[in-house]
């Protein structure tokens, strides 16, 4: 079933790519036709001559369009062949193996499907919390797993074409994973709280970065001004799971909160830990357990990563702002602008 889902995703991506190529080929041609027709309309030639010219132009454009269709068809065939070719697949698999070895974040379980056991453990964990009055009956019913609807997550990669060597970005897609309801529920509670504490140091768009840089530069820009960008490598998979969950606790303590949405802080920590410790997925016929970091694709992972970085970067932010500089971060990308001597 998961392989069929991946196949459908690939078909969808090919359809989108096909549409983009069509727009690229035929959209430009249509624009050129309109320009040519507009020139003919503005010319001082007699109407008969104009009509004749237009007819010739349309015939010529039709010929060009047919040629474009042939070229487009060839291009699509080449792309399909490249995607399906063994060399491309082997290269993709090699990069996947290198990533797994480098991060040491995934434990291979072989062909033993962990889904039935994970469903059972998730529901038992929630029931224990309900019986101990850590969560309400309504929360229990909201978060528990229906075995008929649950599916294990699957892993796929997106190539980072803008980076040297084209590294891969792992996406663990688990829209029906047994812990997805807990992850989504916690994220809805916690993300607004992080947005509150990270308002001055985090951003969600390049436009916001440029706006703040412009405002800073109007009074602070110098010849010796330094610009610095920093990328955190493999942030989601490199965050220690225990420390990531503790970052949530730090945030709630920082905000002096005792409970959120009817959940005690200890309950939130317990549920967050359960989500982080139970990321399982299928890849190339093998089952894996993520033993380090969080799944890129699970809603809670982003909030945990942001909280972890917020407390990790506090000393850096303090040094930069005390010196009159500007510090901004978007998930794993940091931007610093400051008037410091180069040796700093």
From TrEMBL:
Gene3D superfamilies: 1.10.10.2210, 3.10.10.20, 3.30.70.2630. Residues 51-64 have a biased composition (Low complexity). Residues 139-344 form the Reverse transcriptase domain. InterPro entries: RT_dom (IPR000477). Residues 51-70 are annotated as: Disordered. This is Reverse transcriptase domain-containing protein.
């Amino acid at each position: 079933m998961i392989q069929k889902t991946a196949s459908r995703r690939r078909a969808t991506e090919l359809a989108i790519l096909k549409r983009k190529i069509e727009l690229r080929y035929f959209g430009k041609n249509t624009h050129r036709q309109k320009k040519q027709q507009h020139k003919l309309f503005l010319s001082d030639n007699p109407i008969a001559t104009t009509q004749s010219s237009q007819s010739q132009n349309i015939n010529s454009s039709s010929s060009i369009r047919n040629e474009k269709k042939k070229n487009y068809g060839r291009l699509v065939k080449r792309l399909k062949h490249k995607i399906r070719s063994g060399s491309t697949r082997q290269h993709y698999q090699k990069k996947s193996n290198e990533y797994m070895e480098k991060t040491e974040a995934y434990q291979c379980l072989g062909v033993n499907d962990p889904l039935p056991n994970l469903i059972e453990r998730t529901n038992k964990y929630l029931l224990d919390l309900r019986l101990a009055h850590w969560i309400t009956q309504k929360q229990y019913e909201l978060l528990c797993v229906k075995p008929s609807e649950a599916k294990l997550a699957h892993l796929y990669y997106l190539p980072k074409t803008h980076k040297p060597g084209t590294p891969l970005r792992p996406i663990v897609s688990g829209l029906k994973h047994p812990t997805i309801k807990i992850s989504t529920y916690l994220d809805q509670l916690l993300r607004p709280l992080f947005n509150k504490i990270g308002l001055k140091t985090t951003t969600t768009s390049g436009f916001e970065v440029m706006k703040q840089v412009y405002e800073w530069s109007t009074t602070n820009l110098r010849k010796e001004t330094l610009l610095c960008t920093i990328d955190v490598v493999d942030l989601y998979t490199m965050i220690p799971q225990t420390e990531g969950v503790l970052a949530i606790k730090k945030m709630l303590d920082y905000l002096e909160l005792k409970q959120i949405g009817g959940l005690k802080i200890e309950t939130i920590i317990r549920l967050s830990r359960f989500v982080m410790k139970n990321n399982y997925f299928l890849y190339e016929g093998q089952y894996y357990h993520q033993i380090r970091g969080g799944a890129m694709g699970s809603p809670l992972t982003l909030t945990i990563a942001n909280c972890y970085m917020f407390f990790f970067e506090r000393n850096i932010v303090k040094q930069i702002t005390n010196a009159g500089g500007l510090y901004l971060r978007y998930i794993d990308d940091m931007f610093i602008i400051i008037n410091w001597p180069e040796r700093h």
